[in-house]
């Protein structure tokens, strides 16, 4: 699928001239790293009962959920960033991206070199104690069977990702809303914009006068509000965009 040059040039021009561009990223930015889009046609929730990742279910059956979690998520720990993640890191380094707000838990933005990353749904980096709040590297507790226990208090540990029915980390949500409101260019990348609060962030940005750019392989719920819609895969579009932006700066 070819992306018209004038569209890429237009978006690059916006980003190059922006005071604060913020990128919101979803599953579509990580599929090229081999991470399945949970809700997509090949998504995890087509084969696995998502109710098992409801927080109430976890509280009742932590051993079962941990075993399932290991099976599904351990392979993701080996994933590496793709050109889309690197493109955003380059833009930040060049002073043309304020922050990445992500719905992903894979940590690939940080591994690509992005510094300011707001994780709306937690991350696969840590496990937290459901009793005392202690935090441990997930890699240290992911082996074995059943629910691992807190070395400090014996409480059940939980992967530090947001389960269904759980509130989002409040600090992250507040930071994301603030970023959306201060941005003057808002890029929504690889997200269908159907899930709260991802779908409210572009609206907030737009209401404060930001330009909205949607980069996604499929249609999204907010295409009609966008100043630019780039219909393409993140790992194809973002490197082209970053190159154009960096060229205008040099
Ligand atoms: Zn504890």
Automatic annotation (TrEMBL):
Q: Gene encoding this chain? A: cobB
Q: What PROSITE patterns does the record point to?
A: SIRTUIN
Record-annotated Deacetylase sirtuin-type domain positions: 1-250
> What is the phylogenetic placement of the source species in the record?
Archaea, Thermoproteota, Thermoprotei, Thermoproteales, Thermoproteaceae
User: What is stated as this protein's family in its record?
Assistant: Belongs to the sirtuin family. Class U subfamily.
Kindly give the PANTHER family that the UniProt entry links to this protein.
NAD-DEPENDENT PROTEIN DEACETYLASE, NAD-DEPENDENT PROTEIN DEACYLASE SIRTUIN-5, MITOCHONDRIAL-RELATED
Q: Report the InterPro entries cross-referenced here.
A: DHS-like_NAD/FAD-binding_dom, NAD-dep_sirtuin_deacylases, Sirtuin, Sirtuin_cat_small_dom_sf, Sirtuin_class_U, Ssirtuin_cat_dom
Q: Which EC class, in a word? A: transferase
Per the UniProt record, the source organism is Pyrobaculum neutrophilum (strain DSM 2338 / JCM 9278 / NBRC 100436 / V24Sta) (Thermoproteus neutrophilus)
Q: Which residues form the active site?
A: 121 (proton acceptor)
Q: Where does NAD(+) bind?
A: 27, 31, 38-39, 103, 105-106, 121, 191-192, 216-217, 234
Its UniProt entry gives the catalysed reaction(s) as: N(6)-acetyl-L-lysyl-[protein] + NAD(+) + H2O = 2''-O-acetyl-ADP-D-ribose + nicotinamide + L-lysyl-[protein]
What is the name of this protein?
Answer: NAD-dependent protein deacetylase
Q: Per the entry, which co-factors are needed?
A: Zn(2+)
């Amino acid at each position: 699928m070819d992306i018209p040059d004038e569209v890429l040039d237009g978006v690059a021009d916006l980003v190059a001239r922006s005071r604060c561009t913020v990128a919101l990223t979803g599953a579509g930015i990580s599929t090229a790293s081999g991470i399945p889009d949970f809700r997509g046609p090949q998504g995890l929730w087509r084969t696995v009962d998502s109710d098992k990742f409801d927080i109430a279910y976890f509280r009742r059956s932590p051993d079962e959920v941990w075993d399932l979690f290991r099976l599904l998520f351990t392979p993701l720990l080996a994933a590496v960033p793709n050109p889309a993640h690197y493109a955003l890191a380059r833009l930040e380094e060049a002073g043309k991206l304020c922050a990445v707000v992500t719905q992903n838990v894979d940590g690939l933005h940080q591994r690509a070199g992005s510094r300011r990353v707001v994780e709306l749904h937690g991350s696969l980096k840590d496990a937290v104690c459901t009793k005392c709040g202690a935090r441990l590297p997930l890699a240290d507790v992911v082996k074995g069977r059943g629910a691992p226990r807190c070395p400090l208090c014996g409480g059940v540990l939980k992967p530090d990702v947001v389960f269904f029915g759980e509130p989002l980390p409040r600090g992250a949500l507040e930071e994301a809303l603030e970023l959306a409101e201060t941005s003057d260019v808002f890029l929504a990348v690889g997200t269908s914009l159907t899930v709260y609060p991802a779908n409210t962030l572009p609206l907030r940005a737009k209401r404060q006068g930001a330009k909205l750019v949607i980069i996604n392989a499929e249609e999204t719920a907010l295409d009609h509000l966008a100043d630019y819609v780039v219909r393409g895969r993140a790992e194809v579009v973002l490197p082209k965009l970053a190159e154009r932006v960096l060229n205008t700066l040099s």
